[in-house]
Amino acid sequence: MTSTPPPLDATQLGAYFALIEASSLLKHSVEQQLRDAGDLSYVQFQLLATLGDSPTGSRRMTDLADGVVYSRSGLTYQAQTLEKRGLVTRSQSSDDERGVTVTITEEGRAVLAEVFPGHVAVLDDLLFAPLTRADVETLADILARARDHMRQTPPRSAGARRRKKAAAAD
Amino acid sequence: MTSTPPPLDATQLGAYFALIEASSLLKHSVEQQLRDAGDLSYVQFQLLATLGDSPTGSRRMTDLADGVVYSRSGLTYQAQTLEKRGLVTRSQSSDDERGVTVTITEEGRAVLAEVFPGHVAVLDDLLFAPLTRADVETLADILARARDHMRQTPPRSAGARRRKKAAAAD
DNA sequence: ATCAGTTGCTTCGAATCCGAAGCATTTGAC
DNA sequence: GTCAAATGCTTCGGATTCGAAGCAACTGAT
Q1: Which of B22, B151, B156 lies nearest to residue A150, judging by beta carbons?
Q2: Which among B6, B25, B150 has CB closest to A26?
Q3: Which of A12, A53, A162 to mutate to test the interface with B (most CBs of B within 10 A)?
Q4: Integer Cα distance of B48 and B58 in angstroms
Q5: A82-92 confidence digits (pLDDT tens)
Q6: Contact A31/A46 with Cβ under 8 angstroms?
Q7: CA–C1' span, B52 to D15, in Å?
Q8: Taking the domains of chain A in order of start, what are their residue ranges?
Q9: What is the pLDDT of residues B139-152, one digit of tens each?
Q10: Fold category of B39-151 in CATH
């Protein structure tokens, strides 16, 4: 029974659709450029960029997955792929025996450098071209707030593993 | 020709990352809700919603694919899936022998109605909660401009087939 | 120390996705 | 009319994705 009429007005719908469409279109174009320039998928680029941004060039798997909004298993797959191509190395974390530290290689940095200018060019052409400086600032502010809110609002059934015990007092 | 890395300033980077992260996080949560509420993927929901929005309840495949930012083959797959579940029907277009018209069924509308309130709830909780009314208006305006720009800016290296203008009458 | 619970990552199976190739129809040029 | 190119969609093959289950290591309490 749909007893609750949609409390979304036209403006909200517009913002929602525009958000989804814009990010989809942008992602598609970026993906194409990355594929052409360095044979990288978007996730792979994100991973390399995240690693390259780190002072040590390394991160733990979980941190990577969280940063990129990705599943653990998907990250394992991509990390393996990147390792096979020699763009990253994987090693046991020093303090935690079961932790895996991923580190970008020189080769990885090279690919990153290869791809980056084109990446930026796509962003300039598609995203920033029709926007003023003030628009970009405003956009960054609003979306950052939304993102932060989502980050700290736990999905109803994701994130932590289901607790089997203590079900009664959950 | 990669001699001039166009620099992105902090604000631009912030806007870009926030856009990607926010849309990713939102999409993930929405996907979960749709899966739980009606066993629909996000694309499937988008398709049903698009069809439901049409006065006739029908659209041609290509128009659907464009609207949802999806590959043709992916759309074929999803249309088949939805047809198997009885949520849409597919039939030959009247004026074009090779065109396929997809139409939402009563069952499809029912599922849509079933899922919609929860969908809206997620949007309210995650996207709109931390934003003011003015924020939403601004966001809609800016992103709509960006989206429109992307829509009419063809991918530079895409050897995609040229597509003509679609008929306005529906 | 030991046990149960938690966490980090991987493996597994299945679903989904895309691009390229293919088929059928339409369009445009001649 | 006929042919070549363009268009609409599907099929095919392969890559990517996720959740669930599994294994190993850490933690805290006893």
Answers
A1: B22
A2: B150
A3: A12
A4: 10
A5: 999 999 999 99
A6: no
A7: 33
A8: 25-151
A9: 999 999 999 999 88
A10: Arc Repressor Mutant, subunit A (1.10.10)
